[in-house]
Specification:
three-stranded antiparallel beta sheet, Rossmann fold, three-stranded parallel beta sheet, 11% strand, 469 residues, 20 helices, RNA-binding, mainly alpha, Arc Repressor Mutant, subunit A
Length: 469
RNA sequence: GCCCCCAUCGUCUAGUGGCCUAGGACACCACCCUUUCAAGGUGGCGGCACGGGUUCGAAUCCCGUUGGGGGUGCCA
């Protein structure tokens, strides 16, 4: 048996769809494990959506999820537009062999005839009219009688009655090839042995299989994997859903988490945990084990996976991984004074509290800005005589205590006891004064870093704010 | 309308005729831990769409119903 050849055939749209990413991953896992080839073919023949600059975006998106163009198993990219002559030639061959015929009806006329007869689709009007090629004439495939059985690796046998399939168009009136033809001819040219794609293509499959056979080849192995859907159970689309892989990347999702999560949609690794390394996925993934029903693309679960992956990182790695987002924050806050050591100290505390890397700056911003941005709701929570009293007592205690997290803790305990509060409660007003919010990373460590003077200044500032309110 | 696919906790799934009193994960709830919030630990809630068969025995096989979804272009 020759090595299998897989492929993905995205069109350049300016972003890479997460559903396409999952399909790519399925193909990639199999190509790698079976010693096969993963072919990238960019279907750039739709003139309305075709920008050369989008091509690099596809390569980059694939690289991000671990499908590297430098890997020996990777082949391409090929561009569908480069094979237009072959597509047309195949159409002509089909015509010469009697598998296709020309028709001079416009699409409007086809519609009218359909409406008049009450039957959907094209009625085969020109099947036996013996028309020669000419301007405005489309080439249609002569769908044979009988039925077409598609052998699908995930769904088993699917039978289509050919009577329900109209004589579809191969070449447009202007002579250009249609998707169905181009797609099949390309797959033949590239010797694709396995076509793994989304379920939406299943209805196309009998047509493509007939094309393969009419062109004198055995059809490839088909596999139609379930769709990714939103909470309304509709397939996720650019219009209503967040589908761009690049967007998740920019929001600080880790590629490992995204890949792992995507692979659990429609499939599951053996055992009781879904969090598994790619090596496990690569060795265990089987098309036969893919689920048949659509899967909800759940952002909550993706976030949970991402949190797991973030926490699994060595802290140095986490710290470094945050850098792009920290740099972005610095650019947006020229007034801030960055202190790399402080960040390094805080990184471990931040790591267990973020779900995406993009959330990191907001966890530590108060350390670097001259004054914390006071969150109104948080300020409201600590606007009370008791809070004011706690702030005053704290300021007094901090003015004289030793300056370390431990000493600050003791000082807090004294203040808390004097007010009949639990230490955590007593911290709240000070936390708002120091960080601007009621929640955040552990306070004592932050206070130690900021130093006595800044802390006292911030407490004063909040006291004034509360008094004015 | 026609064609096709699908149906296990709210969600993602395990399960391929007896091991199922249906397992895990996310979410949710409670408790523990605790300097807020997290993280972590423990426990809980919660499901085989429905109706017929087949079988000694069905979540697993068959048929139907219902309910979802996809496809029906001179788009890809």
């Amino acid at each position: 048996m020759t090595a299998p050849r897989f492929r993905i055939a995205p069109s350049p749209t300016g972003f890479f769809h997460v559903g396409g990413a999952r399909t790519a991953l399925y193909n990639w896992a199999l190509a790698k494990r079976l010693g096969g080839t993963f072919v990238l073919r960019i279907e750039d023949t739709d003139e309305e959506r075709n920008r050369p600059e989008w091509n690099q975006g596809i390569i980059d998106a694939l690289a991000w999820i671990g499908i590297s163009a430098d890997d020996p198993a990777f082949e391409g990219p090929y561009f569908q537009s480069h094979y237009a002559a072959e597509h047309v030639a195949a159409g002509v061959r089909l015509f010469d062999a009697g598998h296709a015929y020309y028709c001079d009806l416009t699409s409007e006329q086809v519609q009218e005839r359909s409406k008049a007869s009450g039957k959907p689709g094209y009625d085969g009007h020109s099947r036996d009219r013996g028309l020669e090629p000419g301007p405005g004439r489309v080439l249609r495939f002569r769908v044979p009688d009988g039925s077409t059985v598609v052998h699908d690796a995930v769904r088993g046998e699917v039978t289509f009655d050919n009577a329900t399939i109209e004589d579809f168009v191969l070449l447009r009136g202007n002579g250009s090839p249609m998707f169905l033809l181009a797609n099949v001819v390309d797959d033949m040219l590239m010797r694709i042995s396995h076509v793994i794609r989304a379920e939406e293509h299943l209805p196309n499959t009998p047509k493509q299989q007939m094309l393969w056979e009419a062109l004198g080849h055995a059809a490839p192995e088909w596999a139609h994997v379930p769709l990714l859907v939103n909470e309304q159970r509709k397939k996720i689309s650019k219009r209503r859903d967040k589908v761009a892989l690049e967007q998740y990347r920019d929001e600080g999702y880790l590629p490992g988490a995204m890949v792992n999560y995507l692979m659990t949609l429609g499939w599951a690794p053996k055992g009781d945990t879904e969090i598994v390394p790619w090596a496990t996925i690569e060795s265990e993934f089987r098309l036969e084990d893919v689920t048949h029903s659509p899967a909800f693309f759940d952002l909550k679960k993706l976030a949970a996976f991402n949190g797991e992956y973030i926490r699994a990182m060595p802290v140095e790695e986490f710290s470094a991984a945050c850098e792009p987002w920290l740099a972005q924050w610095r650019d947006a806050h020229p007034e801030a004074v960055w202190n790399q050591e402080w960040w390094t100290t805080m990184a471990a505390l931040v790591q267990t509290r973020v779900v995406t890397l993009a959330e990191a700056p907001a966890m530590v911003d108060f350390l670097f800005t001259p004054a914390p941005e006071l969150d109104p709701a948080s300020v409201a929570k600590v606007t009370s005589p008791q809070a004011e009293s706690v702030l005053r007592a704290s300021a007094e205690a901090f003015a004289s205590c030793a300056w370390s997290a431990d000493a600050i803790k003791v000082a807090f305990e004294v203040v808390a006891e004097a007010h009949g509060l639990k230490p955590g409660k007593a911290q709240a007003p000070v936390r708002v004064a120091v960080t601007g919010r009621t929640v955040g990373p552990p306070l004592l460590e932050s206070m130690e870093l900021l130093g006595r003077d800044r802390i006292l200044g911030r407490i004063d500032a909040l006291r004034e704010r509360i008094a004015v309110t």
